[in-house]
Amino acid sequence: MKNTNTIKVNFKGGIIDPARLYNILMACGKSGLLYVRFGLRQQLLFDVILENVSTITAELEALGVGYEVNEMEHPNIMSSLPAEQIFIQDTWLKEEQYLSILDSFQYSPRLKVNISDASQSLTPLLTGNINWISATEVPGYFYLSVRFPKTNTIYEWDQLVPGNEIAALSLKLEDTILQHRSKFYDEGTANGEELMALAKIVESFHTKPAPGPLVLPPFNLPYYEGLTRYGQDLSWLGIYRRDELYSIKFLKELCLLCIETKSGPLCSTPWKTIIIKGIKENHREVWNALLDKYHVNVRHAANELNFQLDDNSLEALKLKQHLVKHLNDDDIRTFGVCIGIKTRKKSEVFSSILVRRRPLIRIGKWGFFHVYDILCAKDYNPNERTDFVFSKDNPKAVLAEQLRRAVGSYYQRNDPKEPEYEMVEERF
Asked: What are the C-alpha distances in Å from 324 to residues 150, 165, 305, 334, 389?
């Protein structure tokens, strides 16, 4: 849409209060909006024509809702709470721990913060700048992994941090990084030990030595949509939209149904989807009726669900549709593979296999004559760094075939005859 502005509203940790969302949607409706989106960092996004920006921002301010227009000064805090109970069972990190940690953030971070359970694959562990990963062997404590802003440099601290100190330590690290930008911001030689010394972390916080380096779990993306039973007499509902657009009318009724049936929590995920947990057995019929009313399909093919795209990128969405069509036509198995599409420089797309679009010629902010590279993560684990370039400089005409071969390489990864590829250091 011409002359549009993107407004972002953060939901801390991806946890959405249905009443708050309902009021935001009412404000959107007053500006003539019909659809909203959810983003990679579990935030709410909506595109507003220039003439309506002042109207909708005034409505948000009246509601006491924080927002940003065309900015990412305060990235949303990500968490793996959407996976708790339904994709994670045997773990000490429960909903109450998440809520306690998130409530302790009395400031809006300027750097990206991730809070993750180490035993899940629904949300990424290391796409933030300050990444907290639960220590499975030490209940109540977290590993800290710092990815310095605008760099590939990652520092893993050798101490564990209690959950009740995560917010304060995150703020201390953020302030130190931003006060010493020349050392730690967009600086490939950033030194983690120097950061800790400047921040005086050891002197100020109650840490304990880590039992060893953080071991990343194997990646296995769960099927995250549909109405599915879990626990005793409970169900969860995952909703995905092919075009990433969610009808405001549908979401308003969904919020009211959450309130009426006392279902929840309502969560957004990094897959630009929503999950409603705690649906009681006697309410399954009314939830199915809501899906029927708005013709919401909840059984998409897995080879469509395992794509990750840049936020608000029509180019990425069109390319996904092109690639999914070819995968379907060729009946290609993609189970266990997370495929990313990256159309913007230094964007963070979580993926086992990354399709990177880049221009051969760039004039200012405009790019021309695009080609595509295919990169694979180490061990095809999206939480790892990029390990090798599978193929590069591909025109779009051959991209689907090259992706098919890359997916094939995932299933042949234990073959000792697998060829060597060019190594690279870029993080997705």
From this structure: 31, 44, 10, 11, 21
Per-residue DSSP letter, 239: E
> CB neighbours (10 Å) of residue 120?
21
The answer to whether residue 151 sits within a structural domain is yes
pTM over 0.85, yes/no: yes
Please check whether residue 279 lies inside any domain of the structure: yes
C-alpha to C-alpha distances, 230 to 89, 225, 275, 396, nearest whole angstrom: 10, 13, 13, 42
Q: Would 104 be classed as within a structural domain?
A: yes
Same domain, 234 and 312: no
Q: Which is nearest to 421 in space by CA: 388, 392, 382?
A: 388
**How many domains does the chain fold into?**
3
Q: Are 376 and 118 in contact (CB under 8 A)?
A: no
List pLDDT tens digits, range 336-389.
899 999 998 877 889 999 999 999 888 877 778 899 999 999 999 999 877 899
Amino acid at 426: E
Structure tokens at 57: 């921002």
Rounded distance between C-alpha atoms, residue 350 and residue 316, angstroms: 14
Q: What is the DSSP letter of 234?
A: E
DSSP notation for 119-137:
T--SS-SSSSSEEEEE-TT
Reading the block at residue 292, the tokens are 């029927």
Phi, psi of 282, rounded to the nearest 5 degrees: -75, 0
Tokens representing 38?
């959810």
Work out the end-to-end distance of the chain between its first and last CA atoms, rounded to an integer number of angstroms. Answer: 28
Buried b (16+ CB within 10 A) or exposed e, 84-102: bbbbbeebebeeebbbebb
pLDDT tens-digit readout, 101-148: 999 999 999 999 999 999 999 999 999 999 999 999 999 999 999 999
Q: Are 332 and 407 in contact (CB under 8 A)?
A: yes
C-alpha 219: how far from chain center:
15
Out of 209, 242, 268, pick the residue that ends a domain.
209
**Domain's final residue, options 302, 334, 368:** 302
The answer to whether residues 337 and 380 touch, using CB atoms and an 8 Å cutoff, is: yes
